[in-house]
Input
Amino acid sequence: MRKSRNLISFLIFAAPSFIGVIIFVLAPFLDVFKRSFSTAVTGQFVGMANYHTIFENQAFLLAVKNTFRFTLVCIPLLVVIGFLIAWPLSKFKNGGIIKSIYLFPLAMPTATIVLVWKMVFYQQGFLNILLTKTGEWSGAFGEINVDYLGSEAAFWVLVCSYIWKNTGYTVVLWLAGIAGIPAELIEAAKVDGAGGMQRIWHIVLPNLKGSLYTIVILSFLNSFKIYREAYLVAGAYPHKSIYLLQHTFNNWFVNLELDKMAAAAVCTGGFLFIVILLLQKMWDK
Amino acid sequence: MKGNIYEIIKKMKKALTAFVLILPGILVAFPIVILITGSVMDQYELKEYLNPIFTGASDFISWKLIPDYPSFANYGKLLFMTPQFFVLFWNSMRMTACILAGQLLVGVPAAWAFAVYKVKGSKILFAVYVILMLLPFQVTMLSSYLVLNRFSLLNTQQAVILPAVFSTFPIFLTYGGFRTIPSQLFEAARVDGGSERLIFFKIGLPLGKGGILSAMVLGFLEYWNMLEQPMAFLDDKELWPLSLYLPEITWGQAGFSFCASVIMLIPAVFVFIMGQDYLEQGIIYSGLKE
Output
């Protein structure tokens, strides 16, 4: 009785969302799956041909490589920087304002920041001015004239931009995790004579495994949004060091190469699905 | 001697902490200061400072924190003589408001269903929702396109609004808020003969407010900044949000760009300041394990 009433209530409350998710996400994704095995125009079944095409496509391979490189550089960097800030901050009684400052970039729309980024990373822009002045002042080097957006350095511009934007929530998540560690545990270690580093290594870090999982998942999710900066600063065809998977998808979309898009969407979706499951498994242990 | 070393370490620690605190302040304030000074600069002064960008000259650009000829002329022109700007601003506002309203209507009850009614299969469904939430836009772009095309919604603002309404991210956040309500409260209400609807409106909504507001604050910041969806699904520039149009303004009209950026920043700053606690709470909810 209770059970069936529960089921009815569940369905009533969740129905609008279910219907919407099925119509707008799940059903069309099945369609995409089907299309990934057919030609774009005639819809003829072609087996794995689309998959072969994308894995022989230089642009796609470059994009996959760059996206991997970006994630593998950014996420560890963000996790570590976040912790290095959160740990001293957790000892502050009123770290609220500092937390706000770190969070603020999250609220700044990309469109407003692009103008400033262009001025900073321009060949004759602020960053080069700063470096040149430092060089002249210390006498170590002369004028610096790096074209940040038109060279390999573009990759690092994106990395900095990502760290700038995402440090805030990482700090908040670390702080929440640190606050969840029972104070007695740390006190007991202190009494036993464990030093600062030992306490961090043996008590604090093992207790933060849950936070780490969350931070990695969310940083990963947000790493895809770096496309906004990449696109707005450098356009649809940027320097090849920052040509990301998102660019490929977008350019295929513009050219209506839907068959390639379908195959790539299935691959990317499937890959992310597996990564999420693996992370969850690792974390459950 | 030993005392000295300790003192040095102590001082270094202090310096390091100070550095950790001051550096982000500078990094965050810098873009805002540039935007604001740029927005109140006379157009000739602006042209002079940014000269290398226009002429390709090889000297550095320059800047002044206090302009020689401060003027609000660009604001005046933008606000009173450029009706197109209002269209774009209003587009952003309307799309963001519609998405958030839709998410409230659809997502909040769904989050409630997941949080309160433990039925067979609800866990698996929730896992599906979490995975959908983690998929980036590019993976679902083609699916959305196919649906929107079938319903002939492409190149209308509904094409941006509808898929976002059914996003599962706000459900996850709201769910986090509902989970903090002790279930004995519902049991007690049921014993007293309260209907499920009554429990949702009288207990769920007031006590789960934190989660709902978190979803709204994070949602506002996300959709105010939206780029991928309108870029893919809206062709007519009259339909675009500010977030997509702003970067199209060329250097020749940099003055407008600065003003428009500052104006676009204001609602985001407002929501950030008003909703900071919820924003933080939302980030923490987004990290809660099942």
Q: What stands out?
A: Residues 42 and 71 of chain B are 6 Å apart (CA to CA). The longest helix of chain B spans residues 2-39.
